Amino acid sequence: MLDFTQRLLLCALLGSVYASCPPRCECSEAAHTVKCVSKDLRTVPTGIPGYTRNLFITGNQISRIGPESFTGLENVTNLSLSNNRISEVESHTFARLRSLRTLDLSNNQLAVIHPEAFTVQNQSLRELNLSRALYNHSSVLDLATCLRWSSLGSLRVLDLSDNSLIYLPSRIFSHLTNLRRLQLSNNSLVAIHNSTFLGLERLEELDLTLNALKTVPEEGLTELDSLPRTTLLLGENPFICKCGIEPFTMWLNRSQGRIRDVEGLVCSFPASMRNTSLLVAGRLTLGCHQRDAGGDLALQTSYVFLGIVLGFIGLIFLFVLYLNRKGIKKRIYDMRDACREVWEGYHYRFEIDSDPRLSQVSSSADV
User: Fold this and answer.
1) Nearest CA among 62, 172, 56, 168 for reference residue 104
2) Taking every annotated instance into account, which residue ranges of this chain make up the domain LRRNT (predicted)?
3) Which residue, 79, 210, 259, 327, is most buried by CB atoms nearer than 10 A?
4) Cα dihedral angle (78, 186, 195, 124), rounded to 10 degrees?
5) Residue 62 and residue 66: Cα distance in Å, rounded?
6) Is the pLDDT of residue 312 over 90?
7) Handedness of CA 121, 181, 185, 82 (dihedral sign)
């Protein structure tokens, strides 16, 4: 009888645990984990057990999340919402997840990110994954505002890779003062501007591989020098090795200890220098400045010589005019008198034509 009672209690306990798991989800109390993977969910399921620390809701059709989506989940530490087609994240969506440390929103279509979308109590969030998550240019601006307003002072890792970013708004990371790793790989960044990385004094790793950097001008080099503790990754960029790249190559040689993949940095253009190491490209292209200087000197000499010739021709012309000044003056007077006679003749004919009586007198005189 006792064994039957124990079995009945055990079955009831297991039944209550099973019943507490949301439909179409898998729950494990022992692992403190709930998985709702590829179940065609339209919203975040309700009834997620309070013991959950690891929550995976991925591969569904959830378009929007808000503060009501995660009530009663104060113990969740790791939250994955990847590949859900989420387009909008409202302010304070994760505010009640006071233990949240890792948030994965990768592979979504974030078009609207509200200003305090990533605010979490106690500033517990340490890792934020937004890889392949930003939908368009406006979402980048929303993100810049959100990173300033969401109180992410404790964030350590931010992943913005694979987002087709062309540029980064100024001071976008200025409030992430404790960030250690920033991943910007596989975007379309064309330049590093002043104040791009302002506020990242504690950054330890910056990944800029697989972007569209053709060179890094002095403004960008100054910006990178403002991150003295940071290890850089710059590989797989289409660097153009032409006149003007020398400051960049000199900086690379000076900063080899900070650039993890410096040995693999090569020229992509022109074809004659393709796969040439950037560490030596500056010395190979330095001659073009010498050739340009020689060309500029020759061009300046040509201009001077042409000026002298034209000036000499002008002097000769003025001297000829001076020698023939009397004849020129006589010709001018003759032309003036001839023009006056012609004008008076035209004036006389006009008066005759305009007065019929004068016209008859003129005809009689002709007979």
Assistant:
1) 56
2) 20-54
3) 79
4) 0
5) 11
6) no
7) negative
